Amino acid sequence: MHAGLGTAAAAVLGGALTADTSRQRPGPSGVLRVATGEPTAFYEAFGRLLTAEVESAYPRLRCRVRTTAGSLTNIELLRDRRADLALVLTDTALAAQGTDLFPRPVPLRAIGRVYETYLQFVVRADSPVREVSDLAGHTVSLGATGSGAAVLGERILHAAGLAPGTDVPVLHLPLADAADAMREGSVEALIVAGGVPLPVLTALDDGPGLRFLPLARLLPKLGGRAGRAGSGLEEVPLPQGAYRSAGGVATIGVSNLLVCRPDLPHAVAGALTRLLARCATALVPDNAVGAQFLDVGSLIGTGGVALHPGAVEAYRALHG
Asked: What range does the record give for the signal peptide (predicted)?
């Protein structure tokens, strides 16, 4: 487990994070700043579980969890050296390689593909809306500004032939606020990327009730399966029993990556990789069912985002 952690001293990260060279005190030390997501949402839950395991395995490594709007903000924090580790949608991580979102590419490296979230585009059960294309004229919350869901939400509207802000009034509300607005009737639809069942949506499903919009048919226009290689987007059915009437609805699954900057010390990247492989079952939040990618075969499937060299070394040592 600790192989390779007592090697030559690694570079200092953010002035605080190092690899310990002492045989008496093996393992990384310092402060690891982890960017997650909105409070009570899936990223934040995963981040808390991860950092608890990190501090248990490496007592000299202290973690600071930062709640954020999500993937876009997390990449910006890595870029600006205000975070060392972050959770991001694969789709958003690919956009960081140079797109309208990030005209100046942000260098990222992956520790592993940790799980798959479900895109959940919901309307009130009493809404006449049955497809995304029916949303013209209806107010939609596409997720907080800075979230990966907000970016994907706009792309989904475009794929359905709708112009955000023109055909569809768009708000960018934090999830809790969007849920309150839907309950009050001032928002008719919202999108979120997360585990299922998601507690906020479960509460809405209890009253006023929800309908889940099918999204899989829009995949070809989003660069998913049969589109851009390694996009992290694929068709998945919502699990039976997750919500009252969502079972079997064909939505979009998007893989999620644990990423860092390229200068994360090799020993730290290796330690994190070994922890992911060893503690997989402890890192699945309670509010998640369905496909999970915390296993040997899929951790390395990071698509178009290269693995950190320290992670590569650890995977080779673990699995050959």
From this structure: none
